[in-house]
Design brief:
By secondary structure, the chain is of the alpha/beta class. It has 2 domains: 224 residues, no CATH class; 163 residues, Rossmann fold (3-Layer(aba) Sandwich), CATH 3.40.50.2000. Strands 9-8-7-10-11-12 form a 6-stranded parallel sheet, sandwiched between helices.
Length: 411
Amino acid sequence: MSELHRGVHGSLLDSPPNGISYALPPHTHWFAIPKSTDEPIFDPFEHFSVRESVSFDAPHNIFAGVHLSRIPLEGTLPWIVDTDCLMVTLRCGQSLAFGNETLVNSGTLSEAEILRRSALMMRRFADSSCYGILFHSLHALEKAVSFVKDTGILQEPSFERWMTKLDVIRPALPPSESRKPATQSAPIRILYMGRSGNDKGQDVAARVFACLDRSMGHAVVLHWVGPIPPNLISIHPDLQWYKEMPRTEYLDLLASCDVFFSPTIFESYGMGLVEAASFGLAIVTSCGPGMEHIGEIFKDGESALMIDNTFPVPKRINLYFKALSELVTQTELRLRLQSHSSRMVVDGCISLKKRDDTLVPLYERMASSRYSSTRRPIASTRLYSIKSEALLARYASAKNKSSRRVRIVNS
């Protein structure tokens, strides 16, 4: 399925701070594995690594610093990193749902092995070459601090120095220039978007849409972007369903809608919600378990209508139906939520200004630094490297459950 939104880092590349330009040169991903591992071909999606890092295959004198996603840098440049869940990076690594994470969750590895990896990874994040660790929410930051404290993987005075690097920068988007004028009368267009199954509340959304279809008739137009179970299609005779959609077409659809509906079970941040706000849509979404951070972005009843994930499914379906029905029938409520969405991306917590007020000073500190470092060997490990293109190809094959393996250079 085509990428419907560009994600956290796409938003940064699409709307950089004033005076800042980004480059993404080819890079190498490094893995340290225990020497006891008897694998002639190391596969990062199948085998355990005790540390990961990246280096860039470009002259360092053209960069003021490096802004990374999740994984720390090897090299001679200052760097910052943003993360949605530092604990996953420490315990498992970059490749979610594969390799280390599978081994960690299956119980194959001992807790001592997992903590050793966490401690080795933390050395890089605590290193003086790291100028900032940027979380997408205060909830994620506090979870990381609790994890580091509880496990003792970083001791004083390194822990206090590490704490000074932590901050919250919420990924943001500019107000869309293609937003349509607020709809004053029917039909009201409601959009559900989910690139995966039940973790995005697919079954709940389908049943809520069925209720709306029966009760609202031509007062609503229901749009569904993403996969839908075949047995659910029959209950939506008038559903506008798009299994796949190019991003440009999705943005056109988003601009034409009035309400964004996301009964999601989990979001690490929620760029789909932020993008909907940038188009000025009224938002109906979840809160509670899996969405503990969402109250930092949206306020229930003010900038969104939220339903708690702790409620039983039938109750959630009823409450979502009620919330969406009110947005269809109560013009004042719908316009008020749309107005709040629009203001949030202009000067609120998900505005570019709010993001850049924290980000630009970090970039300036990196640009004025004279830091240099060299790779430090880790005792009882072997070092392997893989080029970014090969890693992406292996990731794609792993997702498709292919048995093809990529040979990685032994360094």
